[in-house]
């Protein structure tokens, strides 16, 4: 019986199949580990070379709910709650891309992976690219999907500031005394087709947004990555040109943050990088169009897997 058969049976005769997280994650497990001294949650499945999935600002591992088990057909997949997010520890520190990157390195150490394939979306793409620049020995390959942090030209600071304000404003509205309606509005803003936002996704994010520990750091996160990004952490052309890992840059034509042309330009700067433009999708292509995302990203990962000496990451 396929997962779609299970969905249809759960929905009942004649009903539209449900799209539950529980059904999408059949066969996966939730783990809590110490990563660099921080309790860290991950959703994991599969066996093989490690693939680490990194979400966007104010996100969580469920960002990847529709991609974990399909990618696990050929890899050991770890969808993280990054530092300060989800159910991972939220220390009172000055959040930065470096801090999140060091946390990912701590996670790789914990699972015994010398290197891993990094797939990052939005802020996760920024963190993954930072790691590829500063710790190339730990990055087997890089996928940046609608990634943040790009500032490619001398006048790019204005675009960075405009995008930061847009993301920051949308996020603050949801975090300010969060309600179901506010959270749904924030999630629908991410999508080209707002109908893909399920009530289960809304409830999941609302639960995380209303956790007292998240409330204590949410403002720091928004300020750090939207209003006051550190200049030395921005992904400039000079820094992107230092990336040596096999790289795929995936963008969407309807991305509500950084325009796709910037993503394409970044792919031309990164040596040997590929570029893929997805139609009819917003900021979360992995959730909105998972089949196409998996075909492109899965194909890329399979094409580079085994080309480098990578620990299997299974503990």
From TrEMBL:
Keywords (A to Z) from UniProt: Hydrolase
Q: Where is the AB hydrolase-1 domain?
A: 50-290
- A single Pfam family it belongs to is Abhydrolase_1
Q: Known InterPro entries for this protein?
A: AB_hydrolase_1, AB_hydrolase_fold, Epox_hydrolase-like
| Any GO MF annotation of the entry | hydrolase activity
The UniProt entry, under SUPFAM superfamilies, shows: alpha/beta-Hydrolases
What PANTHER family does the annotation carry?
ALPHA/BETA-HYDROLASES SUPERFAMILY PROTEIN, LIPASE-RELATED
Protein name as annotated: Alpha/beta fold hydrolase
């Amino acid at each position: 019986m396929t997962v779609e058969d299970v969905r249809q049976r759960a929905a009942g005769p004649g009903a539209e199949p449900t799209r539950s997280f529980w059904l999408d994650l059949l066969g996966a497990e939730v783990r809590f580990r110490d990563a660099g001294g921080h309790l860290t949650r991950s959703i994991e499945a599969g066996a093989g070379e490690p693939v680490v999935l990194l979400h966007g600002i104010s996100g969580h591992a469920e960002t990847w709910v529709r991609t974990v088990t399909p990618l696990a057909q050929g890899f050991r997949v770890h969808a993280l709650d990054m530092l300060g997010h989800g159910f991972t520890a939220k220390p009172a520190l000055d959040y930065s891309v470096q801090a999140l990157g060091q946390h990912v390195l701590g996670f790789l150490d914990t699972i015994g992976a010398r290197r891993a394939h990094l797939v990052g979306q939005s802020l996760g793409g920024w963190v993954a690219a930072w790691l590829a620049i500063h710790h190339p020995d730990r990055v087997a390959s890089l996928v940046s999907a609608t990634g943040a942090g790009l500032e490619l030209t001398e006048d790019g600071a204005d675009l960075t500031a405009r995008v930061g304000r847009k993301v920051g404003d949308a996020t603050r509205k949801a975090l300010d005394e969060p309600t179901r309606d506010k959270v749904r509005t924030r999630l629908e803003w991410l999508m080209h087709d707002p109908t893909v936002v399920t009530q289960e996704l809304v409830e999941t994010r609302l639960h995380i947004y209303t956790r007292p520990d998240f409330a204590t750091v949410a403002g720091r996160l928004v300020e750090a990555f939207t209003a006051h990004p550190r200049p030395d952490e921005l992904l400039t052309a000079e820094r992107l040109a230092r990336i040596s890992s096999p790289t795929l840059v995936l963008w969407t034509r309807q991305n509500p943050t950084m325009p796709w042309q910037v993503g394409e330009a970044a792919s031309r700067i990164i040596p040997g990088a590929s570029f893929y433009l997805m139609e009819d999708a917003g900021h979360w292509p992995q959730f909105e169009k998972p089949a196409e995302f998996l075909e492109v990203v899965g194909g890329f990962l399979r094409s580079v897997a085994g080309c480098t000496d990578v620990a299997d990451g299974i503990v």
